[in-house]
Design brief:
The structure holds two protein chains of two kinds.
Chain A: E1 7-9, H1 14-24, E2 28-31, H2 37-43, E3 50-53, E4 63-64, E5 67-69, H3 74-78, H4 83-86, H5 88-95, H6 100-105, H7 108-112, H8 125-129, H9 158-166, E6 169-174, E7 177-182, E8 202-207, E9 216-222, E10 233-240, E11 250-256, E12 263-268, H10 273-283, H11 294-317
Chain B: E1 3-9, E2 12-18, H1 24-31, E3 50-53, E4 56-59, H2 65-68, E5 73-74, H3 87-94, H4 104-117, H5 123-129, H6 141-153
Antiparallel strand pairs in B: 1-2, 3-4, 3-5
Helix pairs in contact in B: 3-6
The complex binds flavin-adenine dinucleotide and FE2/S2 (inorganic) cluster (2 copies).
Chain lengths: 318, 155
């Protein structure tokens, strides 16, 4: 499988990358580790004539305190001292992305900004063309939910669920300015264009909140094989201790693989495992489009949430 | 547009002519005759194309050759010292961890990434480290055994 013809630009500063993107226009895409984008270009599930590499920009690879550069690869992220102790949901999620080679290459921003997936869209070009094209490939209707004019492709990034539960923010830079968003606002909710980024915007930083004294968080993933596979359902929990604003504390829940965006739910700190499972059941609306059965993915999300809550509470009691 | 580049492979500087879309896998196999780099799924799922980039396992089918720059690449051909095979290669032979052999270069390079960092891994750690390499023949047990014993013998 050869890549289509492309041009490659290799800026060494962010300013240069932003300028290039402005000059080249919407036909250009940023390239980080390439593990999502190059595979999609080969399959015809992404189009780009001009690639702007972010790999040679040292500032994107820096980790300063709680600020992680978008270009930090998942392997380096997992090497950060205290990550597992302070942000366990993130270290558990990053550790189960794909296999080791993808984690050595793939970056955190690339993981967040990966495109959505669906068996009808993200398949080989030959297979996609052997039937009517799906909405996301330019056809008339969604093939996973026949008759629908809305794309249901699933967002399946692992780290997004963890970072949502942990309350992370992201810094987005464009030519002449920058903005800082809650991570939830990075995602549009549309399966056919899942990010709210405008052309030419780069996710430069992921900012974790100051860790509280007692941090209890975790991530659970359901997939068919123990390695390589994307989450068919992923659940992150963060038990936020009581504070003056939320005297009961909070249970923050991040979900992935169950909709066209990663989802954030907030429950009171005293929520029971059954209440949590009920909330996850209501929020999760998977359709049969990424392997496994939608009903079972939803069931697994509820079970994983329940088990994880009990486990984190028992840990606290020890 | 084609460009002449230099890549540091297995300790030597080699020249190649590439297009922007040429992958590291294509350069290594088609121009530098390093056919130990195997061609499998070409989309990141099988690990047959695994090479080391700056000492860590990566998928050469999902890296553009132009992106490699000055970073050193190691393929399976770079592991032996003259006629002396690398201990992992010896161990794979000794434990019958090779059948058709298609996954073997990738397996050994993934195992090397592990042993370089954790010289005496347990079988659980080995299993995790080899998760990105598929084998259709051996059933994995002999591969895990080969890495386990190699780790033990290094002590
Ligand atoms: C076999 C296989 C299995 C996988 N399994 C998983 C899995 O289990 N879980 C999972 O989460 N992912 C999985 N992935 C997807 C992907 O490899 C990872 O998400 C990886 O972290 C992507 O990072 P990258 O740097 O390689 O992204 P790239 O492929 O370089 O980029 C991905 C997208 O993000 C955009 N982008 C990258 N960086 C930025 C930035 N700084 N600002 C703005 N946009 C940017 C690119 O334009 C592109 O659209 C898998 C991939 C493969 C091939
Ligand atoms: S050929 Fe590269 S992962 Fe299969
Ligand atoms: S030995 Fe044949 S694929 Fe592993």
């Amino acid at each position: 499988m050869k890549l289509p013809t492309i041009n490659l630009h290799q800026p060494t500063t962010l300013a240069e990358a932003l300028n290039l993107s402005n000059t080249l226009g919407p036909g250009s895409r940023f390239l980080a580790g390439g593990t999502d984008l190059l595979a999609r270009l080969k399959r015809g599930a992404a189009k780009a004539a001009e690639l702007i590499s972010l790999v040679h920009i040292p500032e994107l690879r820096q980790i300063r305190g709680l600020t992680i550069g978008g270009g930090v690869n998942l392997y380096s992220l997992l090497e950060v001292t205290d990550l597992h102790r302070q942000f366990r949901a993130l270290s558990q999620a990053a550790a189960v992305v794909a296999g080791p080679q993808v984690r050595n290459q793939g970056t955190l921003a690339g993981n967040l900004c990966q495109d959505t997936r669906c068996l009808f869209f993200d398949c080989s070009d030959g297979l996609a063309r052997a039937r009517p094209l799906c909405l996301k490939r330019g056809g008339e209707e969604c093939l996973a939910v026949p008759g629908s004019k809305k794309c249901f492709a699933a967002y399946q990034g692992d780290t997004a669920a963890a970072l949502l539960a942990l309350g992370a923010e992201v810094k987005i830079e464009h030519l002449g300015g920058s903005r800082r968003l809650a991570l939830a606002d990075l995602f549009s909710g549309y399966g056919d264009r899942p990010l709210s980024l405008a052309p030419g915007e780069v996710l430069t930083q992921i900012i974790l909140p100051q860790p509280q004294s007692e941090i209890r968080s975790g991530y659970r993933k359901y997939r068919l094989r123990g390695g390589i596979d994307f989450p068919l359902a992923g659940v992150a929990l963060n038990l936020v201790p009581p504070c003056s604003e939320t005297p009961q504390g909070e249970v923050r829940v991040g979900l992935t693989g169950l909709s066209s965006r990663p989802q954030l739910l907030n429950l009171g700190g005293k929520a029971s495992p059954d209440e949590l499972a009920e909330a996850v059941h209501r929020a999760a609306r998977p359709v049969d489009n990424v392997g496994g059965q939608a009903r079972h993915r939803r069931y697994m999300a509820c079970q994983m949430a329940r088990d994880l809550l009990e486990e984190l509470r028992n840990e606290a009691a020890d | 547009m084609k460009r002449l580049i230099e890549i540091k492979v297995n300790g030597e500087r080699r020249e190649a002519v590439v297009e922007p879309r040429t992958t590291l896998q294509e350069v290594l196999r088609d121009q530098l005759d390093l056919t130990g780099v195997k061609e499998g799924c070409q989309s990141g799922e099988c690990g047959a194309c695994t090479v080391l980039l700056e000492g860590r396992s990566v998928l050469s089918c999902l890296i553009l050759a132009l992106e490699v720059g000055e970073r050193p690449v190691t393929t399976i051909e770079g592991l032996a010292r003259g006629d002396a095979l690398h201990p992992l290669q010896e161990s794979f032979i000794e434990h019958g961890a090779v059948q058709c052999g298609y996954c073997t270069p990738g397996m050994i390079l993934s195992a090397k990434t592990l042993l370089d960092q954790n010289p005496h891994p347990g079988s659980g750690e080995i299993q995790k480290a080899l998760e990105g390499n598929l084998c259709r023949c051996t059933g994995y047990n002999k591969i895990i055994e080969a890495v386990l014993v190699c780790g033990e013998e290094q002590s």
